[in-house]
Amino acid sequence: MATLVDGFGRTFPYLRLSLTEACNYRCSYCLPDGYQADGRPTFLTLDEIRRLVRGFAAVGMRKIRLTGGEPSLRKDLPSIIAAVSATPGVRKIALTTNGCRLPQLVRTWREAGLTALNVSLDSLDAARFAAITGHDRFAEVTEGIEIAQTLGFDAVKLNAVLLRGLNDDELPAWLNYLRTRDVAVRFIELMRTGDNREYFERHHYRAEALEEQLIASGWTQQTRAADAGPAREYAHPGYRGRIGIIAPYSKDFCAGCNRLRVTARGDLRLCLFGDFGIPLRPLLQSDADHEALTARIATQLGLKAAGHGLHQGNTGITPHLASIGG
Ligand code: SAM
Description:
TIM Barrel; twelve-stranded mixed sheet; 9 helices; 12 strands; about 25% helix; binds S-adenosylmethionine
């Protein structure tokens, strides 16, 4: 089986593919003024996605996450899931969504072949949720999460970005939520991007502070699978649910990197906070370019740096996470 290995010995079984830059939310840390279309060329088509995924699977990708922007805004999402699911070599297909239409759509995604679901839920308080996301959709999102738990997904995970002064007092509410539910919450440390510098200064909260509280109350760290995401995962015998900590500023975060990204316009990004993208779209126009595509992916991997420059305040060319696929 082919495997991609970079100059630091890291392998890359995990691809995060953005399906659109558009989002209908106005999260205060990401797109506070909403998505502004810029009239540039459209996002990857179903045929381009099929070729792209075939190329990555040929060089060892086994898990793909569909993200955005908000991927559920694409009407052809079930067809995309089905196409990815039919690609030889792909074993896991996950989707990250804001969940705004989860009750109506989640069954269709599951039937199309989706194996794991991540839903953003920044607060367990409806009013706070609306204030952070700009949308009063707490009831629909949480109803959708309850439905998702009955559909046999390998995993249902919730993403909550930690925000000082906005949701950093909710650990007791989360523990109550996780006592009986078979879901995992990921607490994500707020990342600085090109557009959110002042917001970051005001609301950044260290994920490790929360992690210390968990360890002190008997939560223990679990071992990590080769294709696992960036979270350090914790479990506790008194709780059905799990807690993951995503701490991009912690010491060994980049050493465990196993992910590559492709933007909604078909640029390979070697790092969420990299300085450049590598255009793959020209090689997605014909099945005949399959070998050229796999060769470009393998060659470009040599340019992957050891780590991001966030500690130096260097956010690369990422204005906000919706632009690259969070
Ligand atoms: N629209 C989908 C959603 O809401 O989940 C997928 C895209 S969104 C960019 C993916 C994840 O990135 C969400 O959980 C979001 O909260 C998170 N995110 C966005 N900007 C972030 C930032 N600056 N720091 C940390 N997480 C961020």
